[in-house]
Amino acid sequence: MTVYYTLTFMLLAAEMVTFGILVFPLPYALRKRMFYFLSTSTFVAKVAYGLKIAFIFVGILFIDALQRMWRVTTEADLAKSSGQGIQDVRSETNIAARKFYAQRNTYLTGFCLFLSLVLTRTFYMILDHIHTQEEYAKLKQETAKSSRNAIASDEQNKKIEELTKKLAAAQEKVRDYDIVKKQAEQNQKEYDRLATEFNTLSGASSDKRKD
């Protein structure tokens, strides 16, 4: 295996390990920290940029391996149709080896590209799921808070109604007291007037008796 196909195999193995880590059932807090680090770290962004360039080269290798596989398959079919494979065992073995290597390189580069797409999609799906869980938790807290505020507001409204009733009753008592006070003042004035008239009449009658 050449150097670039060896590097492609190492990249495929790294993708398999990464995919296993992504789908492993980790605790929510640990998963959240890991995905936030992967999505916000500048170092990870630089590594991802380098991997994009590497996948471009892998795509070129995939196209080349695919063309070689087609070419070797065509040569093998021609050799079988012409009968050369039966006469020359070495040429048949050579064609079979070339076909095997071409298919191996095609599958290696193809799976590497396919797994890169699966990894990207899986990463963003899990990240969206984490954001959705956070929004749900916030919404749940806001709903609980609003329900508590609603209960508190209902209690406050009840207290306000009770205080309003008590205030109205107190104002009614004050009005009754004012009326009684006015009546008492009027009665007091009337009593003073009658007492004055009585004293005046009593004084006049005593003066007449002395005469």
TrEMBL record:
<keyword id="KW-0175">Coiled coil</keyword>
<dbReference type="GO" id="GO:0006888">
    <property type="term" value="P:endoplasmic reticulum to Golgi vesicle-mediated transport"/>
</dbReference>
<dbReference type="InterPro" id="IPR040463">
    <property type="entry name" value="BAP29/BAP31_N"/>
</dbReference>
<dbReference type="GO" id="GO:0005789">
    <property type="term" value="C:endoplasmic reticulum membrane"/>
</dbReference>
<keyword id="KW-1133">Transmembrane helix</keyword>
<keyword id="KW-0931">ER-Golgi transport</keyword>
<dbReference type="GO" id="GO:0006886">
    <property type="term" value="P:intracellular protein transport"/>
</dbReference>
<dbReference type="InterPro" id="IPR041672">
    <property type="entry name" value="Bap31/Bap29_C"/>
</dbReference>
<comment type="similarity">
    <text>Belongs to the BCAP29/BCAP31 family.</text>
</comment>
<dbReference type="Pfam" id="PF18035">
    <property type="entry name" value="Bap31_Bap29_C"/>
</dbReference>
<dbReference type="Pfam" id="PF05529">
    <property type="entry name" value="Bap31"/>
</dbReference>
<feature type="transmembrane region" description="Helical">
    <location>
        <begin position="7"/>
        <end position="28"/>
    </location>
</feature>
<feature type="transmembrane region" description="Helical">
    <location>
        <begin position="34"/>
        <end position="63"/>
    </location>
</feature>
<dbReference type="GO" id="GO:0070973">
    <property type="term" value="P:protein localization to endoplasmic reticulum exit site"/>
</dbReference>
<feature type="domain" description="BAP29/BAP31 transmembrane">
    <location>
        <begin position="1"/>
        <end position="138"/>
    </location>
</feature>
<comment type="function">
    <text>May play a role in anterograde transport of membrane proteins from the endoplasmic reticulum to the Golgi.</text>
</comment>
<feature type="domain" description="Bap31/Bap29 cytoplasmic coiled-coil">
    <location>
        <begin position="158"/>
        <end position="209"/>
    </location>
</feature>
<keyword id="KW-0653">Protein transport</keyword>
<feature type="coiled-coil region">
    <location>
        <begin position="153"/>
        <end position="197"/>
    </location>
</feature>
<feature type="transmembrane region" description="Helical">
    <location>
        <begin position="107"/>
        <end position="127"/>
    </location>
</feature>
<keyword id="KW-0472">Membrane</keyword>
<keyword id="KW-0812">Transmembrane</keyword>
<keyword id="KW-0256">Endoplasmic reticulum</keyword>
<keyword id="KW-0813">Transport</keyword>
<protein>
    <recommendedName>
        <fullName>Endoplasmic reticulum transmembrane protein</fullName>
    </recommendedName>
</protein>
<dbReference type="InterPro" id="IPR008417">
    <property type="entry name" value="BAP29/BAP31"/>
</dbReference>
